[in-house]
Amino acid sequence: MVKVKLKKKGEEEAQATPSSGEGKEILDMIAGLNRLMKKVESIRGIDLEFDEIILEGVMPPYELLSKLLSAAPPAVGAPAPAAAAEVAEAPKPAIKLEEFKLTPPIETHPGAFAEVVLGATRDEGGTRAFTLKIGGNNTPPYYRFEGGLPHRPVIAHIVFDEDPGLSKLLREQYGDVVEDPAAWAKKLVDVYGAKAITLDLNSTDPKGTNRSAEEAAQTLREVLDAVDVPVGIVVRSGNMAKDVEVVEACAKEAKGENLFITSTSLVLPTWVGVELDDEVLQYYDIAKEYGHTIVSYQPMNAQGLAWLNKTAINKEIPTSKIMTDPGMVGVGYGTELVVTTMDTVVNKALIGDENFQPPIIAAPCNAWLNREAWNKFEEWGSEIERGTSFECATAAAALASGAHMLVMLNQRAIEMTEALLDKIYLTKLTDTRSVMRHLPKNDCKKCGYNTCQEMAEALLKGEAEVEKCEQMTPAGIRTLKRLLNPEGVKPDPAEIANWVVEV
Amino acid sequence: MAEKVKSPAEVMKLLPQEDCGECGCDSCFEFALKLVERTTTVDKCPKLKKSALKKIKNMLAPPMAEISFGSGDKMVTTGGEEVMHREELAFFGKTIIAYDVWDTMSEERLVERVNDIASMSFVRFKVQYNVDAIAIRSVSGDPTKFKNTVKKVADTTDLPIILCSLDPKVLKAGAKVLKGKKPLLYAATKDNWEKVLEIAKEYETAVAIFSPLDLDMLGSIAATFAREGINDLILDPGTFCEPDSITETLSNISLLRRACVKAGVKEVSYPVMTVPAVASMSFKNKKMAAHYENYLANLFVTKGVNLMILHFPEIWEFMPVVYLREGIFKHPKLESAIDPDLYAFNDPDEMSPLMVTSNYTLTYGIVSGDLDRYRVKCWMLVIDTNALSVDTAVGSGDFCADNIVEHMEEFDVESKIKHRILIIPRVAAEILPELREALPDWKVVLGPKDSSEIATFLTEEWEKLLAEEGAA
Predict the structure, then answer these.
(1) For a FRET experiment, which of A126, B134, B420, B443 has its CA 20 to 30 Å from that of A266?
(2) Residue A97 located in a structural domain
């Protein structure tokens, strides 16, 4: 007795073609039955619904069955007669694709980050050529399924008022201006296209050169006169009183310029509830009095940041004049703790806690404090590339965690970051420098222009075609075309390429 | 479906409640707490009944499936995530890092590249970091060629293998070679899933599902495979790196994670992978492309992506990605301080140099790594700085003269060491005056700024310092 499974509607015929004559006999018989059943089914109104029938009187020997099986995929194990014939006859049941529709798991966030403006133009009481706006998002970083990305993060290029000991790669970029902060700042804007400058007043450290607050203010004045982009200062003398002194002198000197001011020396009491030191209160008073934007700094301490922000808010400084600095460190040196701090800040800000809503400023340039960025260990590969890759990695961690503003040092890392932000924010390229970022910069002349710069200018005027560049990949060409004309150029379906064969 | 809430009290009910301490915890409740936060494992309890074990495992099962591929020692596992952000608990499914080779390479180049990839490594805190897996791409589209390439790769390395082709015939040719080695098939798509499913069943493989920008299809295919008994699945929503589409990629990663850990959508509750290697399509200049790839990789690691395929096996790119990954996937509850003590390096004697450092794991790890690397014979006094690094601890006052003196007394330094020279890190220069005052019998000197320079410093200075002391 053999059990035979009959095929259901829509299934394919059995593929088995046994070599032996006897096997064929059985298969033929089954196939015949199938045909018969199909005919019955084809009669209107009749719907056969059974999984197996019993063929009586057929008693094939085991050898025959195993032959039959070896011909019919998939043959598994040594089967009992009943199971064997099932496989022999039946093609596998057709596999149905599960139906699924993903409902985007959207959450509503009652809160949003504040919008902060950097710098002030003449109309606003300053002397900057333009201002920049950051923050304002009401979703976690890059959750576009929940909402838009309002403002592109700003990169402030850092200038030191005293050579902090620049490594080889950085010396190539700033070696000629390292002794003169104003010239350094000017180079950053004129040559490297900086849109914001942070002046690090590291010479004010009492244990170091110990420059006075007045000298620091004078340096700031020179920088403000040399460039017309928004400017900030970082004071990190390691001494609260000295920091406040420097901050006050600078705030006064730059009255109306809407500086972004950071002091990294403010220490919180060990216990919540204990009063803050006078210097901390003075720090916020000064910012308020001279109308600057003030940064609350506490490394890897979300509650500490909220405490400082609350102090500022209680002084009636609006959240649009405060920023939060969680103390970014280079990858491998506790970056994850800063990431976690930023997670907390973002979550609380979106819940609606005002104390967490000042936008986040993070300093990936701190990657240069770690030896991986500059050490010449041969087994670690080129230190030139490493300096860039470690600062970029740190910046990536900051961006992915929701930083609204970055402070960076190395031009190669800055260029990489700006190019990435062009793509993430689909920013229309309007100046030569930004176009150059997406060109090969090797002046090969094959496009007909003498330099990539000339080509960039022609592209901006609409006088050249991106395709003329022979040094770019199709993806590179698509990228630049789209960025030159974000509204006009539609995304190219070719982008969904099969990387398996194209990389 | 709502988010699953795990309660230590519920776990506690299933434990023996004898507080025997064999699991390393003082009480069953502490064990329950640690099970929920995943800093211990349930098999540590020797007295648990089988039924209770099963119940606890079910109760604590993370929403995201845990998957593995490869075989033997090199098998890799990922997934098992249960939170959106690290601050909520921890990330668990450490990013598997794979590099690619392809079937149009000459045999010589293929072997060379496989060896380059497999040998790319660095040591940090005494741990050696290597590439986790190798991806083989079928560029030719020829099953025979692919089969030969897979065979050559498998003969050269025992790293887990990802077979990359959208053509089932090619995948099958590769899977056949790796029978029993559980490769990851990349990928099942809306067009080939039926055939890929057959291969996965026949050769017992793991499967990546690739559905660019169509998350409904991604879930459909995953649910179908799961129903058919293939559970080692990983989702690829497509890695795009061009204007705007890159934003979609970042957004989709978070969307899938949210759907899994917060909304409990079973169909997409699998680990997620990306392919930063697509960066190489954007630039002809290889360095530019490698830097872009590095950027994408680090964005993805921060977002908790579970597997990445990279294209440029450059140590300077591999290092930052691994550095970040090791941090992001480190459990925040695990200790970040080491025990203060007088540590001996390379069998020192009573006249060997004495140095001092902080008890922050990272600091100690770096310093001890350098001392080992250069076989520096010395004593290292590790003082309790509340797990702060030296420079931070100088600022906070934890790395100060009093603290150093206290530790010197506690560990009886004066009787273990005959000379009276103490070397302190240059970054602690500011405590020098007070320390000299506190240790009048000692000569306190500034060492180098970075511990990698200790060996050179000692070679140049130590004999001189000893001689000076002898003269005095």
Answers:
(1) A126
(2) no
Q: What is the total count of domains within chain A?
A: 3
Q: Is 50 exceeded by the pLDDT of residue A14?
A: no
**Fold adopted by B8-60:** 3-methyladenine DNA Glycosylase II; Chain A, domain 3 (1.10.15)
The string of DSSP codes covering B296-339 is HHHHHHHTT-SEEEES---HHHHHHHHHHHHHHTS-TTS--B--
Size of interface A-B (CB pairs under 8 A): 264
Q: Are A325 and A362 in contact (CB under 8 A)?
A: yes
Phi, psi of B345 (to 5 degrees): -115, 130
Give strand pairing partners of A405.
A154, A361
Convert the pLDDT of each residue in A111-127 to its tens digit: 999 999 999 999 999 99
Give residue-wise pLDDT tens across range A71-115. 444 434 444 444 444 445 556 678 999 999 999 999 999 999 999
What string of H, E and C letters represents the secondary structure of A231-254? Answer: EEEEECCCCHHHHHHHHHHHHHHC
**CATH number of the domain that residue A498 is part of:** 1.10.15.40
Q: What is the pLDDT of residue A29?
A: 64
Q: What is the DSSP string of A348-379?
A: HHHHT-GGG-SPBEE-GGGGGGSGGGT---GG
Task: Quote the CA–CA distance of B28 and A178 in Å, as a whole number.
Answer: 62
Query: Does residue B455 sit at the A interface (CB-CB below 8 Å)?
Result: no
Q: Which of A500, A499, A480, A498 is nearest to A489 (CA)?
A: A480
Give the residue carrying structure tokens 């600091």: B363
Tokens of A290: 């001279």
pLDDT tens for B80-98 read 999 999 989 999 999 999 9
Residue B357 labelled as part of a binding site: yes
Domain that holds residue A307: 115-425
- Mutation site for A-interface testing, chosen from B192, B204, B314, B323 by largest number of A Cβ within 10 Å: B323
Closest CB from A144, A336, A392 relative to B330: A336
Q: Please tell me the distance in Å from B77's CA to the nearest CA on chain A.
A: 22
Question: What torsion do the CA atoms of B392, B394, B396, B399 make, to the nearest 10 degrees?
Answer: 110
Residue B444 has which token pair? 């306190």
**Nearest CA among A501, A457, A495 for reference residue A475:** A495
CATH number of this structure's domain B66-328: 3.20.20.20
Please compute the mean of the pLDDT values over residues B266-293 and round it to a whole number: 95
